């Protein structure tokens, strides 16, 4: 997971019932992430029983299909009360009645290079000309094609275990690009050969800020940016967010599929320091599909405006045309 783990809940479901049913995919990584959520809930609600409900998603069976659909359906059918998801796998616009209800402290948000054993000691810069790099992300591929034009990029599918097996047991790929967070959660940090900086490859979701409660505004910022830009996992849109000294920074970029055409801009806004905020949002106020509890209203408003303003600037500079071509190419495929 690229990032931050989110509880994806249906509005009206409350964490005060005797049993909470937590939906998750069956993959090992998904189960590990779900367990961490369950442990946090147990700390908050020790008297509430939990039941983890693993299910096969269409994404597990048909690897080029959106991963969230089956979990959404389980929520609609009231078979589970919440599901745990990676934000990168959620649609930009959530279905009616759904919301992102909680954000866990995030892991390392960067992308990582995992080399084929025969290439140990290399980096993307030093790999031979025409080396093939595997990635399932249009966002990563578009940025890395621009940054490392001597390399070739090829789609690779499957869960984390499957991708590593394809890398190690065949000679199809010189390296693959994965989320550092997923490798760390699986206990496979030793497989990370290189961590990519935002200059090489911006990640898809906001960086985890340490200044609470304004850090909760990051999800709102991202949602406003992507929704206004009409971006998502089917087009190469990259976002990097950060909180420093109660300033919220947002860098956004759009890329053509081959990385040859791109636009990148940055903006920032001030957010109110926690010690100056007496009144917090006591009830969830939903903004762009995110229900942010205990986040100052002024921080929510600033984050949403920042996301919209940056998307508007990129569109004015021609981002819409770049994304239109990318969508048409994907539809043709």
Question: Can you give a write-up of this model?
Answer:
This protein is of the alpha/beta class and 333 residues long. The chain has three domains: 5-103, 3-Layer(aba) Sandwich (D-Maltodextrin-Binding Protein, domain 2), CATH 3.40.190.10; 111-195, D-Maltodextrin-Binding Protein, domain 2 (3-Layer(aba) Sandwich), CATH 3.40.190.10; 214-332, Porphobilinogen deaminase, C-terminal domain (Double Stranded RNA Binding Domain, 2-Layer Sandwich). Helix content is 31%, strand content 24%. It has nine helices and 15 strands. It has helices at residues 28-44, 58-61, 69-76, 138-147, 160-169, 180-185, 217-229, 297-316, 319-332; strands at 5-10, 19-25, 49-55, 82-86, 98-103, 111-115, 132-134, 152-154, 175-179, 194-195, 237-244, 247-255, 262-270, 285-287, 290-292. The strands form four sheets. The chain has a five-stranded mixed beta sheet with strand order 3-2-4-1-5, with helices on both faces. The protein has a five-stranded mixed beta sheet with strand order 8-7-9-6-10, sandwiched between helices. Helix 4 links the parallel strand 7 and strand 8 (152-154). Belongs to the HMBS family.
